[in-house]
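Write out a sequence, fold above all:
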Amino acid sequence: MQNRFQRMVHMTAIILLSFVLGVGYISADEKPDMQGWGIDDPYNKLYDVREFEKIRGEVVRVKEIVPMPGMSPATALDVREGDDEFEVHLCPTWYRTPGEIRLKKNERIKLRGVWAEINGKDIFIASKVKKDPDIEIIKVRLTKDGTPFWTMTPERLAAETKKE
């Protein structure tokens, strides 16, 4: 009787373990820090392509920030344009970390994107960053409609990056 009971306990443990490992395996393929970065999330709705601008500036620093409360971290820049200094949001850190952005302090850059206001602060949400003279550093959104690259399927992302 005890032998049968032990087998049932072992089988239950194996089934539970298989379930836990299977759920972990399935979710490992998903982006774990997507929180707040989805196409329909409030942050993405701040990107109004009708307000598209091109600006130039000088890199002050590359850093990690949290754009809005509850969002996962972002890679951002502090940029100086004349006497003004402002923050430029690039992408979630799981898409590109600050260490992957090949920019140094005082380098001249060209930015494309839109201005937005978050918590009373004007910030620039970038779609593309180029280093003078026209060396592309990072492109993170489609210019025509502002679709973030990190929300695209792998096939669509490959097609978009191949066009360049």
In short: The beta strands are 53-65, 74-81, 84-92, 108-118, 121-131, 135-139. The first helix runs from residue 2 to 28. The chain has two domains: 1-30, 42-162. The chain has a mean pLDDT of 85.
